[in-house]
Amino acid sequence: MDIRDGSPLRYSLLGPVEVQRGATALDLGPRQRRVLLTRLLIEDGHPVSLTRICRDLWEGEQPTAAASSVRAHVSRLRSALDPGRRGRSDVLVSSRDGYALRIPREARDTTVFEESVLAARTAVHAGHLDQAGQRLDRALGLWRGPALGEAADHSFALREKARLNAARQDALELQVTILIKQADVDRAVPAAVRLTADAPLRETSWALLMRALYAAGRPVEALRQYERFRSLLACELGLDPSPGLRDLHMAVLRHDTDVLGPALGVPGPQRLTTVPSALSSPRPRLVGRAEELAQLDGLLQAVAAGGTQWAVISGEAGSGKTRLLDEAADRAADMGLPVVRVRGGRTGDAGQGAAPSCPVVRLLDALVRRAPKESGHGEAAATHPDPVEALARELGRAPVLCQLDDLDGAAPESYVRLRRLAALLRDTPTAVMCTLRDTGTPQVSGLLADLARHGTAWLHLEPLTGDDVAELLTARGEDPAEATALHRRSAGNPFVLTELLRLAPGRRTGPGARVPTAVGAIVHARLAGLTAPARSVLTHTAVDGGRLDLGLLAGVPGMTPDRLPALVDDAVTAGLLVWHPDDGDPFAGHYRLPELVREVLLDALTPSGRQLLHAALARALTERDDTDPTRLAGHLRAAGPLAPVPSTAPAAQRGSPRSTGRDGP
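Above: the chain sequence. Below: its structure as tokens.
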């Protein structure tokens, strides 16, 4: 039982961790104990092993008595959370798998918050705006500060912190939506301003601010906010606003009340999806894609002649898939061919069941909104029971280019509908272009197998070459002498290269080089998606010079040799480790951290943390008979005062002065 005076315990993570019985807050003890409680609460009742708790609480080198300290903290927590127990605790339980906190889900403020927001969203769909607003006010009132409090910056908490912060931003956007629907612009405008301040790169928040300003009779300010966001996006990420936001901008210019009506719809973790505007800002030169552009030109010409064409554009994140869609859209517009683009992935619950997450339905909706209202066929298509058949008929009316960007996140039923659509589109003047990162998933494979029977164009975007980088520098009027260094630093990724070129010349390569803000944010997000052991593998590799040495890592305390291959695979899948084949033998080679990933990992370490890692690697090297003395000397020197004593070094190293080594590998 978790009660003593009849009042159940309430656990709060939306701010500093807190446990209350009635109106009384329990004394949870010192900081390390509160972090331990947060660690167990995040697991939602699942056990956490003692070894993992020690790694998570002491990131880096653990004290000798770490396990004993954890057991003592667990005992004190049991006394605080379950004071009236007799025998074993039913609240903080232990088993062979570790420690677990067994409490009702409704006892946590995170659960109460999320369920309240869901109920508010449901009330909005039902038209009960006042009720929805009250539920949201109560939900947001649960936040007492930054989520997870003192544990927020621990590696184990990063993913949960990001999830909770995103959920809070969703709730705030829903709150502004309700205010706009209620025509309460006096509260909607300042609330929307706060949204953009809290999440300056979140497009939905800026769209709400533009709508609130327009509803308040301030269209000029709405246009100014669009320009402000456009400049910010270009500066920070090198991107243009989405087609949806550009259409919203055009609607403000035209005072289009069909788009700017008081009912915005419920926002959430979704993107704006509308027909792209032909008025887009000039884009940077596209290099290294001449073959792909030639294929797209042939595809567009075939459509103009009345044929049906499919194209699949694949490649890793940042390889330029969307940029290639932009180029195809521009060329189609020059030919007089209409262009419709929608996001292929999920856009969140919009109150219409699964339909809004299906690109077929969104594509149909976009085409219907384009259709002349006097024809009457738009309304018929919108109400058709089979969206695939309705879309096939709609596409048969006139030549059109359809673009499905980021199809990876689509629901499984979406792929089934696209396969049916491919079978129905015969001799229809339509081009359908899809972008994908992963072409190997089962549902994607089935779609691609069907498309292969229809003469589909396959465009896989490889990294740019050094010559491509030199061409881009020349086109920018810059000296191509830096091309080799930029190509190595960007690994040929167009997005990373673009971010590097936004830096001042002295900050791109060489001693003064910096990691672009956007690239660093992406790397940190990918690292947060890995387990703590996988991040530890990468951090040790970064300190060791960037080249993965599984044999060495297996000798580092805390590493589990039999798990290392799986951890490496996780890092490779996340794009944080890359394979470097040996010259002349593609099957021989090694894994290495990309240059920018290594710098992000090293920058995140404190000086003492880096010294501890060098010391651990030096100890592991002393156990190897084939240790390179220079490599060992480098780690010993970089470990500084934390280096192991010289007597532990192998015979080849003993007696050698540390000063002869490098300052780290």
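Residues 262-282, 346-356, 373-382, 651-665 have pLDDT under 50 and may be disordered.
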